[in-house]
Give the backbone structure.
Amino acid sequence: MKIAGFRGPQGLRLGIVEGDQVIDLQAVDPAVPADLAAILRKNGGDLSALAALAGRAPTSARLPLAGLSFALPVANPGKIVCLGLNYMEHVKEGRYADNVPKFPTYFMRGLTSLTPHLGPIVRPQVSDTLDYEAELVAVIGRRARHLTMSDACSVIAGWSCFNDGSVREWQKRTTQWDVGKNFDSTGGFGPWMVTADALPAGGKGLKIEARLNGKVMQSDNTDNMMFPVAETLVDLTKGVTLEPGDLLVTGTPSGVGQSRTPPIFMRGGDVCEIEIEGIGTLRNPIEDERA
């Protein structure tokens, strides 16, 4: 099941994507929250009620997918936890080649840094070094602390695509990456969330690719994560309580723009696409920030 956020004349909506249509869940039942995180909290991560709603949707609740104004798959994620340095070939192409991490490298993103499918990723006025990073996102479905390998995957509600747009100049100014990873509207997220039952456990074995203006820049497989999703969740929840609607953004493969000769960064007029097997393609035009 594919669950998408979108905007209609009535405001924020939530829908089920079926083929070239989306079922407006609020048109079936106005009491349904428009934020997926609220539904996950209410139902303990169980999304079967949404499938039942979609099954009884009238024709009037079905909208064409073409022309839809997409919103974030999770409108208000509480925590956006990101991994850096999670593919060995990416580690080797950067400044950490001689200091390979022994543990997951975490940083955080804020909500204002995100932009939905087809929404612009914005290159800030202060830097030309806006880089692309194709990443797999795990959406947390229920409250979790002290997970084990036997139950880690059970807390994942679904999966999505992410473009961890990074302002490299600012990322490198200090040992903490957060500012360079949190410029407004630099993190593409979408186009929808695919429920966990539709993909292999732990998001393993999925082809992941980034294309800039149609040219393949990154191509790898999630099997090559140094710290796979389940192991990362076990590690993270030793200290952090995860809540429904939280996001775990799982790191990028090699091929980023800053490591190319010469470097290639995203600029106004470009289009960046992140495609992950079994999920779909996140597409974002790049715009320069207006003065």
Observations:
- The first strand starts at residue 2 and ends at 8.
- The chain has two domains: 2-71, 80-288.
- Helices lie at 25-28, 36-43, 48-55, 88-92, 168-171, 229-236.
